[in-house]
Amino acid sequence: MLAFARYAILFLIFTISAGNVTNSFLLKWGFRDKGEDSSYLQTYSLTGMMNGTAPRPYVYRSTIVQLIKKGVDKIDPDVQAKLFMSITRYDSLRNSYFNGIPMRYWTPPVAITYHITYLLVYWTFFISLIFLFKIAKHMGQDYSRSLLSVVAFCFIYPLIFQQGGYYYDFFELLGLVSTAYFTLKRKFYISTFLVFIFAFNKETFFLVPLALFFLYDDKVGLKTKIFLLLTQLVFSLSARHYIMSGYEGNTGGLVEWHLWENFLFWIDPRSYFGFYNLVGKGVFTPALENPIIAIPLLIFYTYAWGKSENRYKFYFWAALIPVLCLSILFGFRDEFRNLSLAIPAAFLIALSGVSDFSKIFAMDENQESNL
Fold it and tell me: What is the rounded CA–CA span in Å between residue 170 and residue 349?
């Protein structure tokens, strides 16, 4: 009975947390369905992505939705029509999240693909929370602290989408936390397979093996580490080549340059006091660089960093430095989602400070009484 209750609590909290995060994300960004009707199929809307007509570099991240669309196209037209009738009876998801898509493009295959992608985003994030919980347990945290760590992650994670976000960010997160977990568990065949699979989601995933190299424990020999690194690089670069091929005629380019905009943004003192409407309509939360968030995070991570194992620190830097350099050149202002490859490492380091959270922010009795 107790075991059932523990699992029930996890299921309830993960269900609500995943719903809150995906709902706030989709209310803000949807599936990027804004655009002029005449050029709609050439935008990076989900319709453009599933048809392979979105501009570069976004179209490189369309493999999963193209596969979904191909699967939907194989469904019998009569079945498609029945599903479409059920969808359009209320059209609640479209009215809430996808209302930017022109009505003439809201066909049975497109509507079904949108709904499958929506469900996939939700359950992908739900499974990611399970992996984060398992990572916390692996790191020696008890049931309560592991659960609270995941809940805290759900409060912070939506804030990385300050300058945008898309469905593939959730698929990437699952790839990151699952490969980290199986690496920690020393199940290298599984982690290597997952590196290969998730490399089809986004062209930058080939950087993950470079970071995982530093996550291996001392029991893993150097030859094994190098073999795993080279194997994962070959697999991920092969997938990268595949997803980037065939789109030479699409608009856009390999990257978007934003170095000058980023420089102007970060030298402006006003940038550090921003608020964004991310978690709900009319609800403004501080930007991650705002002192309201930045100072508590700095205090916490300074303490947690000092208690973390060196391999987690190396793993963090190996994940962060490449994407930070890319973000400076090609990201847009405080687009923190571009640093997502460092999320598992940041979570591992945070776990080193979870047990001492009260100690980190402790005050004397007089100060406590004033709060």
Answer: 21
Instruction: State how far the Cα of 101 lies from the Cα of 44, in Å rounded to an integer.
Output: 12
Specify burial of residue 104 (Cβ count, 10 A radius: 0-12, 13-18, 19+).
exposed
H or E element that contains 277: strand 275-280
Nearest Cα to Cα of residue 59 among 199, 168, 154: 168
- Tokens representing 255 are 């990257």
Q: Measuring CA to CA, how many Å separate 245 from each of 56, 130, 200, 201? A: 11, 34, 12, 14
Can you tell me the distance from the alpha carbon of 258 to that of 333, in angstroms, rounded to the nearest whole number? 8
Say if residue 108 is preceded by a cis peptide, omega within 30 of 0: no
Q: Is 43 exposed, middle or buried, given 0-12, 13-18 or 19+ CB atoms closer than 10 A?
A: buried
In the numeric block, the tokens 């991650």 are attached to 288
Q: Do the strands 283-286 and 275-280 form a parallel or antiparallel pair, or are they unpaired? A: antiparallel
| Three-class SS state of 331 | coil
The reply to whether the predicted model has a pTM over 0.70 is yes
Confidence class for position 362, pLDDT limits 50, 70, 90:
confident
Residue 360 tokens, joined: 């980190």
pLDDT at 309: 95
What are the residues facing 276 on neighbouring strands? 285
Integer Cα distance of 123 and 99 in angstroms: 22
